[in-house]
Amino acid sequence: MSSEVAYSIVVPVFNEEEVIAVTYERLKKVMDTTGRPYELLFVNDGSKDKTAQILSQICQQDTNVKLINFSRNFGHQVAISAGMDNALGQAVVVIDADLQDPPEIILQMIEKWQEGYDVVYATRKERKGETLFKKWTAAMFYRLLRSITDVDIPVDTGDFRLIDRKVCNVMRNIKEKNRFVRGLVSWVGFRQTAVEYVREERFAGETKYPLRKMIKLSLDAMTAFSHKPLKLATYLGLLFSSLSFLYLLFVVFEKLFTPYTVPGWTSILATSLFFNGIILTILGIIGEYIGRIYDETKDRPLYIIDSTIGFSREGESHD
What stretches pass through the bilayer (predicted)? Predict the structure, then answer.
């Protein structure tokens, strides 16, 4: 059956009632120009507004549209994974619903895919409507991630991308819980290339990636693709142990051969607080890794589907 669908467009959504109808119209307009069978697969990640109702109505009007409703909010990266799990197309495109990633770029991705590339990712050459803080932290994150991992994760690139059916099949077999999809797509390899685009301002509504979620995504990315933060504990331990030993020699020398002594405990207290801070930081890093190991050992389903529309089977649960 998958051979009947040329393109699957996976759209994770969470509280997007203000923009979802426009998103559908633009996606439909773009995909109709391809002249090939396609599906628009919306994954409702536990929305609390009217997103599910609007998409349900669209599904009734357009047989190319499918909807997956989660039982609760499982997160953006999990919603993308669910879309990949259920997509039927020979090429699968992931795009957010907020229209910051222009649907028209999909046609450029398809051209690259037809040239023989297995993954076509969209690189942002400009980001409109974002604060300097957001732009600076995003740039720093991508470059830090690239420097500490052995995987070539492209900078200035989000989840907006096209993947071939064989790449999608590989992704379906990856079951880790704390997911960083764009990193996993880079990790699996295959022939990859980029198309550049200008990221637009959000069409309507509020961002679904506030600072708290951005920090969590960053931690998921770094812990999933690098163990160098753990090595940091060893390096810091060796460094400060060496400095402490040298300082000890200095204190002994000062006591034995000079008339000077330490007049108080201020320096000792400050040093103690500094090292305690280092220790707590290291314990926090270790805790992040242990927490992710704990999540993996529980082996719970990655997500739970409450209902579906447009599929042959309803109410499925996947892991």
Answer: 232-253, 265-290
Cβ–Cβ < 8 Å for 68, 308: yes
User: Per-residue pLDDT tens for 260-295?
Assistant: 655 555 566 556 666 666 777 777 777 777 777 776
What are 244-254's pLDDT values in tens digits? 666 666 666 66
* Cβ count near 274 (within 10 Å): 11
What is the Cα–Cα distance from 189 to 99, expressed in whole angstroms? 28
Let me know how many helices (H) and strands (E) the chain has, helices first.
10, 9
In the chain, domain spans: 2-226+302-318, 228-298
Per-residue b or e along 214-236, where b marks 16 or more CB atoms closer than 10 Å to that residue's CB: eeebbbbbbbbbbeebeeebeee
Tens-digit pLDDT profile for residues 82-114: 999 899 999 999 998 888 888 999 999 999 999
Q: Which CATH architecture has domain 2-226+302-318?
A: Alpha-Beta Complex (3.90)
Q: Is 26 exposed, middle or buried (0-12, 13-18, 19+ CB in 10 A)?
A: middle
- Residue 124's DSSP bridge partners are 197
